[in-house]
Amino acid sequence: MRYNAEHKRETRERVIAAAGQIFRKEGYGGAGIDALTKAAGVTNGAFYGHFKSKSEAFRTAVLTGLEELREGIAALKAQQPKAWLKSFVSYYLGYKRTCGLGESCALPSLSPDVMRADEETRGAYTVELRRLIEEVAGGLSKRPSGAKNPAGAEERAILLLAMLSGGVTLARAVSDPGLSEQIAAIVTGAALALEGPDTVPGS
Fold it and tell me: Model's pTM, two decimal places?
């Protein structure tokens, strides 16, 4: 049976979404092709019709995850130009810290496996991460007055992403909900302070 282009596109998107969830939950090593195809509701033949290997599916899932994060930030900047950072940090250290692993952010969930991936995957990740940094930097002031960190926008964008990603990683890893909340609160304050005291709640 021949499928039209729309059906093929939908199938590919379904496989990518399922792969992203499985890789987030199980890690690259724990996610086999059978688990990926079962989650996507496709056959092995259909999977290989879209991806040559598990590593290619992983690379696509990673890039899709980072692209979704970048597009989400861009949308937030457009909707809330003056308050996007507070909303983003609150969402990231709130919902994205407590949701199921399958729905977690690609940055903290998939980056550890990227470190062990092939050069093609790491190269593609680097390109997409640079785009993400640029998107974040575009929403930050050039040199915030009164900020504890007077670095430029790009440097603060890198620091912000590292703080949020690392903070979520630590907060998810601990078994004590109170400590998880404490980590989130501390990282939230530090992240918002990058833009100056006016962005920090209660300041």
Answer: 0.86
